[in-house]
């Protein structure tokens, strides 16, 4: 299992680093680990976040997480 830096995680999710930071502050978005000031995103957590946000219709109710 590999951990990604915020820049790498943002690239994978196709969002900005700022969006990831906002999600962290609000408790939204993928789970992350923090060592001191360093933030890392386990690839497994990014995959889980992507799975949680899969939709088959634009009419589906938002589950509270954004992607």
What do you see in this structure?
By secondary structure, the protein is an alpha+beta fold. The protein is built from three helices and three strands, in the order E-H-H-E-E-H. Strands 1-3-2 form a three-stranded antiparallel β-sheet. Strand 2 (33-35) and strand 3 (38-42) form a beta hairpin.
H/E element string? EHHEEH
Strand content: 5-15%
Strand order of the largest sheet: 1-3-2
Helix residue percentage = 40-55%
The rounded distance between the terminal residues' Cα atoms is 22 Å
Q: What is the total number of structural domains? A: 1
- Which class best fits the helix and strand makeup? alpha+beta
SS elements, strand count: 3
| Average of per-residue pLDDT values | 92
Query: How does the major sheet shape up?
Result: 3 strands, antiparallel
Instruction: Label the overall shape.
Output: globular
How many helical stretches? 3
Describe the structure concisely.
Helix content is 42%, strand content 15%. It is built from 3 helices and 3 strands. Helix 1 (6-13) crosses helix 2 (17-26).
């Amino acid at each position: 299992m590999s951990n990604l830096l915020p820049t790498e995680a943002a690239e994978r999710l196709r969002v900005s680093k700022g969006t990831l930071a906002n999600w962290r502050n609000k408790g939204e978005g993928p789970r992350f680990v923090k060592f001191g000031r360093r933030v890392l995103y386990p690839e497994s957590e990014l995959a889980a976040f992507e799975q949680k946000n899969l939709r088959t219709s634009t009419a589906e109710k938002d589950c509270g997480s954004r992607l």
